[in-house]
Amino acid sequence: MASAIVQGIGIGLAVAVPIGPMGVLCINRTLSLGPRSGLATGFGAATVHLFYSFLAVLGFGVAARAWLDDSTRAFSLVSALVLFWFALRAFRRSAPPGGSCAVERVCLICAYVSAIAFGLTNPSTIVLLAAAFPALADMGDPEVAPLLAAGVFIGSIGWWVILVMLVAQCRVRFGAGLIGISHRISALALAGLGVLMLVNAVERAV
Question: Which residue has better confidence, 105 or 24?
């Protein structure tokens, strides 16, 4: 039982640690909106990892992988458009003024839900989890499967917590001017990733 959790944590870390579009988004939100928004984004990403892991351990790994492979072009196109939207918002964002608790809760919910929506269509997440499907499928024991999927979630969320804590420390040391510059840099990074995904979608269409 414990080995299933440990294996799941390893898979969760392997999927979450590579800095891709979701990592850039998490960093941007942590710098501009604060650690809570970054954590909400990370929890959204970890929720997606948990969902795909359950597909694999419940025996849908092969079918899901084939469907994901066939749908990669569409996912790349959708992700490119979403990244362009995130990039535009990051470019226009200014340091957030103090708001009410109600507004903060809405922002956190939006951060969580948007991270789930983006994670479900993010080709980077899909490719990494598709590579992990065989390892997840090998642990298809009904008693072990929930522990393995839980381990993936723990490993994933563990990384997002570490990333947000590191970025939050940098945020404390940044002035408003440097935070504004970070918005521009992350906006360019998100837009660049969007261009790469758009090119990938076009190449698959040819």
Answer: 24
Model confidence pLDDT, tens digit, residues 7-19: 878 888 888 887 7
Which of 100 and 120 is assigned the larger pLDDT? 120
Q: How many residues does the chain have?
A: 206
Judged by average pLDDT, the poorest of 36-40, 74-78, 84-88, 100-104 is 100-104
Longest Cα–Cα distance of the chain, Å, equals 54
pTM of the model: 0.73
Tell me how many domains the chain contains: 1
Domain extent, residue 112, equals: 2-205
